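Quarterly update, task 2.4: S-adenosylmethionine-bound model.
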Amino acid sequence: MTDNSEIKEYILGVNSTELRRLEFQHDVWKEVTDSFLNKINIQKGWKCLDVGAGPGFVSMQFLDLTGETGEVTALEPGKIYLDNFREYCRTKKIENAKFINSSLENAELEENHYDLIFLRWVIDFVSDPGNFLLKLLRSLKKGGVIALQDYAYEGIALFPKGGPFDNIADYVRKYWIAGGGDPYFTTNIPAVFRKENIELMEFSPVSLAGDNRSNIFRWAYLFFKGHLHSMTELNIISKELEAALDQDLESHYENPDTVFFSPVIVNIIGKKK
Ligand SMILES: C[S@@+](CC[C@H](N)C(=O)[O-])C[C@H]1O[C@@H](n2cnc3c(N)ncnc32)[C@H](O)[C@@H]1O
């Protein structure tokens, strides 16, 4: 049985501002996710599970890719996020979508059921990612695919350097850890796969870069505008540092010579033997 007291509240929260940020995030990273989905070669009729589906933007793509004979299950603990996907399915009169309004830890999943289990920006946030992954592997069919996109939280950088933002990766890693997560969990996944007889088909890093008015810098800008203050509340940074980081971001936003690099996202595909 799962002990609920060990499941920490999801650090980034579930609210309408975050929903809009996730929507923008989906647009900024869509090309990366689309080419990842192409590699998976999703077939009509597949049963897909989108874990921590958020507002369901990728689940919507799974519906198109698997067609009417497929089955798409969005598992998401945040009710307003799952409702976004429910509403999409209702207006499109989609009948082959399923909804699980729960954390994975508290969900009952059929074993050996799914052709594809997908997680984007989820596993680095959960408290016990090793067992989280094992539970998912049990519900994957033989021959089925597990696909993850998540951080190995390195590489984020803002040029010209010289301001407090130079140390931002450290603060964000502490923020993830404060929520019970592990900003490097992706790097453990090849070892878990080896032990669990999952063939590692893909393990590739992706980073995006852009200038002061690029969508990728705006993505980071919006994240820090929304979350720097939470880092202060958790005593990860001081009030003074919060103000200095904010100022650093603003001055880069006005500087046409700015170059921003995103943190590394790792694309991982494993196949159950
Ligand atoms: C950064 S969002 C990503 C949402 C979506 N996967 C996407 O790519 O747009 C992380 C999501 O994981 C969900 N989540 C957090 N902890 C979870 C858990 N223990 N089990 C399942 N989902 C969880 C959150 O509610 C949130 O919707």
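Highlight for this quarter: The domain at 4-154+180-208+263-272 is CATH 3.40.50.150 (Rossmann fold).
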